[in-house]
Amino acid sequence: MLAAVLLGLPFVGFLVLTIVRRRMAGGLAVLLTSTGLALSIILAVNLPEQPVALHANWAMISGVAFGITFRLDALTALMLVLVHFVALLVQLYSISYLHDEPKLARYFSYLQLFVGAMLGIVLAGNLLVMYAFWELVGLASYLLIGFYAERPSASKAAKKAFLMNRVGDIGFLIGIFLTYYYFDTLEFDALTTIGSGTVAPTALGLCLFMGCVGKSAQFPLLTWLPDAMEGPTPVSALLHAATMVAAGIFLLARIHPLLAPDALVVIALVGTVTTIWGGYSAVFQTDIKKVLAFSTVSQLGLMVAGMGTNNVAGAMFHLLTHAFFKAGLFLSAGAIIHAVHTQDMRQMGGLRKALPTTFVGYSVCAAALSGLPFFSGFLSKEAILGGAFNWSSEQNSNLSFLVPVLLLISSGLTACYMVRQWRLIFFGTYRNEYVMIRQVHEPDWLMRGPVVVLVLLSVWFWFSLNPLSAHGSWFFRIMPMTEESTYWWLAPVSIGLVLIGGWIGFRMREPKKTYSYVRLSLEYGFLDTFFQHLFINPTLKLATLLNRTDQRVVDKVVDGAGVSTVVLANLIMVFDRFGIDGIVNGAAWIAGRLGRLTRSIQNGQVQSYITVAVVGLLMLLWWLL
Amino acid sequence: MQAVDSQFFLFVGAALFSIGLAVVLLKRHAIVVLMGVELMLNAVNVNLVAFSQYDPDRLQGQMLALFVMVVAAAESAVALAIVLQVYRHFRTAQLDELNELKQ
């Protein structure tokens, strides 16, 4: 019941907000979301021990029932609170950030749709329902990324995000088909119990994972996420923290029992590649939001690698902590963009005095992201790294150590690009020629408030009393870890790597953009170029070819058919006119002539009648005699 | 008196008949046409009389010729009355102007 209300609220909001006036929209949206937050907290507190499934029949297809199921368990409750909370802060922030926007009501209505779709994924009790909301998330992200539709780059980015998600979604859909094929059910309740008994096929797990690859921007479908920065900054915060990219991780958590060991290895590898790829791509970016976007890619890779190394709880923990500090980073970045009217970090610098609150907030969130102790990111990152080392020690191959080692390196990389960004924004001299440093000022409290809340939530004690370890955290009580890591050296090594990476990031000179290693980073490993040459160009060529074939062959055939019909019609017309009409007219003409002939005989002249009679008589006589 | 060969009677009769027919066909005035009819009747009479020489006892041909004359007289009286009425009605007795049969 409560779940239905929770799910209904954003969709009602979506419809209502499209018609209200723009001044009311923000308040109404905040009201709806805070109601949702209160409800989901009530739900989380009163959560039953066993998972609850609400079932309703939806369709019967040749005797097979497909139902709408919603499922309530600890994971759901956690995500409900998280999504509502981040959405609430983002909406509060948006009221101020977008106060000049004429399409404000529509913006909030899209946000509600986005939140509602994400809640649907979270609450879904079977793969079918999840897929439906999954697509809705895709739609909402399309609408929001392309919100500034008047900019060609924004609509292009929205299209790119949507299409790349489609690629993953196709895999997801095939995975759903495979699941049904093998297990005759799509309900999570049944699937979790089946999965523990028999091993699901590897292909099934990989296909379902493709959905996550698309939605959570994993290698190789990661290029849409940086482009998605074309959307309004609060949308980026929401998209990177609570909705959209979290959906992929959540999917993996839900279907984890279905993943075969081989599939898990692939997932771990993809996650590792993604985290390194994203991390390296972030190092030389100059756009403030693109750095954050690639850091999200990198962190998502970390979470996926956590999933792949059988560490669901660790990955979900990182999802939770990451949501807070990444939303905080994006909202701070929004404040900075709001102040200096540019996203180019080369035109910032020395802002720590002009924007003190934002500076502190950004520093804390960046520290959490980099994984410094006393911040939340450290705890969750350690959980994932520990799980990864546990996993690799259980594998037979020595190469499996590559995964945790690369993850460790990527955390150093994270520190490097975050510190570089931090330095470029807040240190050095102010480099913007268009906005005077005197004009740079902090935003109002409606924008600063959410940042402050998120900053507070990026500190360790919300999650665990021990700042150096997540052991005994409340999180792992509701989501037990499979095994605790026992590597005493892990924390010092990772802190050391973070410090080294940070030091490199702080000292490094900005290299020229022409160096190949810089271009490799700026073009995110030339993935887009690769796609362009491998898929897009051939597709376009094929399209051109088909177009030409269409024009030259199909159109010609159609044209020819038309022309020949006309010619045939003309022939028939000629035949009609001279043949059929000729016969008819000829008959008429002959009848006319005959009539005239006979009429000329019957001229009423008695004498001519007699003449005819006589002649006739004579002829008769001549014939008879 | 030597008997005239019967074929000459036939020639005269045929000639009279032809002349009468020509008058009937070609003349435009109704009374002249009536005259033509009389000629044709009399051509028949000539034939009748001529052939009656082969029937010297009963003279049927001559008797019939007399009947023809009587009937012809009556007929021409009726016909003349009709012509008179036609003339009164149409103000003409020219046959080619009377094409009432056409209607």
From TrEMBL, chain A:
Keywords: Membrane, Transmembrane, Transmembrane helix. NCBIfam families: NDH_I_L. It is found in: Endomembrane system; Membrane. This is NADH dehydrogenase subunit L. One of its GO terms (cellular component) is endomembrane system. GO terms for biological process: ATP synthesis coupled electron transport; electron transport coupled proton transport. Residues 58-108 form the NADH-Ubiquinone oxidoreductase (complex I) chain 5 N-terminal domain.
UniProtKB/TrEMBL annotation, chain B:
Belongs to the complex I subunit 4L family. NDH-1 shuttles electrons from NADH, via FMN and iron-sulfur (Fe-S) centers, to quinones in the respiratory chain. The immediate electron acceptor for the enzyme in this species is believed to be a menaquinone. Couples the redox reaction to proton translocation (for every two electrons transferred, four hydrogen ions are translocated across the cytoplasmic membrane), and thus conserves the redox energy in a proton gradient. NDH-1 is composed of 14 different subunits. Subunits NuoA, H, J, K, L, M, N constitute the membrane sector of the complex. Its EC number is 7.1.1.-. Keywords: Cell membrane, Membrane, NAD, Quinone, Translocase, Transmembrane, Transmembrane helix, Transport. It is found in: Cell membrane; Membrane. InterPro entries: NADH_UbQ_OxRdtase_chain4L/K (IPR001133), NUOK/Mnh_C1-like (IPR039428). GO terms for biological process: ATP synthesis coupled electron transport. One of its GO terms (cellular component) is plasma membrane. This is NADH-quinone oxidoreductase subunit K. It is an enzyme of class 7 (translocase). It catalyses: a quinone + NADH + 5 H(+)(in) = a quinol + NAD(+) + 4 H(+)(out). It holds the Pfam family Oxidored_q2. It comes from Spirosoma endophyticum. GO terms for molecular function: NADH dehydrogenase (quinone) (non-electrogenic) activity; quinone binding. It is a multi-pass membrane protein. The chain crosses the membrane at residues 6-26, 31-51, 63-84.
